[in-house]
Amino acid sequence: MDISANKLLPIDNLDEYKIHFAVWNGEEQPLDVFVRDPDEWKGWNSWRGSRNDFSRKFIFSLIRYYHQTDKWLFGGIFEVIERNTDSYNVKLVALHQEYIGRLLIHYPGPGVRGRAFYLESHFNELKVAQLFEKPFEGEAFCGYENVEHGFSQLEAIIKQNKSDWKAALENVKGVYLIVDKSNGKMYVGSAYGDAGIWSRWACYIGTGHGWNDELTKLINTNGIAYARENFQFSILEFRSMRTDDQVIRNREQYWKRALQTNAFGYNKN
User: Taking CA 43 as the corner, what is the angle to CA 38 and CA 47, rounded to the nearest 5 degrees?
Assistant: First the structure.
């Protein structure tokens, strides 16, 4: 039986609210932003642009849960304290804070373009899909062979220090692939020594480029936002930490030859 979200999130004065359907903005998924940094997520609700989307006193925020169709994560209720030319001054209110990041809602969405709508037009159609025991912290480790994650997804995972991902990735050496989705160019890299793939990828999250020459030029020119928008990571091979480092280096060279990343990608050695 469907349970209406208004049973868990009762609101009396609906006409004082806009509902914010937060979706991919062309660079980042709001779910990744929410997991990575609460202040950044607050920024998604304070951004104004050229329109006065949040024209009412309160913002009822939902985050596109892109792992599943027609699902939204409750992101809290914000009060608009001040409206500036290009931003809002907002604060998170106490109402229903216990459900932030925990309540998953089933709803197709507004059906038209835009991010802000009158809450009363949608509120009674929101259905409870799931209630998590604790706020969502990012997806569980998917297995080495299933990693095909964007920079922003990995950034949220690594900054949250996700224990399942860290345990899996810091205990293997391997060869990985970065694909630039804007042009199809690829970079083959490897992780060996004592740190494993986790440490190597954490370096990319910190710098945007991992100190690879061609990627460094790219990020220095375009900023880390370019990596967030375009870089996708996967694992080509993973081996035990007991594997000799030279084996990993040899496999790295094999994949560079097989994928022709020296001639057509970002590898230069």
Answer: 160
- Who's near 166: CB < 8 A, 6+ residues apart? 198
* 114: confidence class by pLDDT, cuts 50, 70, 90: confident
Q: Helix H segments across 135-244? A: 151-159, 163-169, 196-207, 213-222, 224-230
Give per-residue pLDDT as tens, 124-133. 999 999 999 9
> Distance between CA atoms of 195 and 4, rounded to whole angstroms?
48
User: Is the pLDDT higher at 66 or at 78?
Assistant: 78
Judge whether 29 and 22 are in contact, CB under 8 Å: no
Strands 172-180 and 231-240: antiparallel
Averaged pLDDT of the chain: 94
Strands 71-83 and 88-92 come out as antiparallel
Q: Is the distance from CB of 217 to CB of 137 less than 8 angstroms?
A: no
- Distance between CA atoms of residues 267 and 260, nearest Å: 9
d(CA 239, CA 244): 10
pLDDT recorded at residue 2: 85
Amino acid identity of residue 89, one-letter, is: N
Per residue in 36-56, pLDDT (tens digit) is 889 999 999 999 988 899 999
Sheet with 172-180, side-by-side order of all strands: 148-150, 231-240, 172-180, 186-191
Give the list of residues 6+ apart from residue 256 with CB closer than 8 angstroms, or none: 188, 262, 267
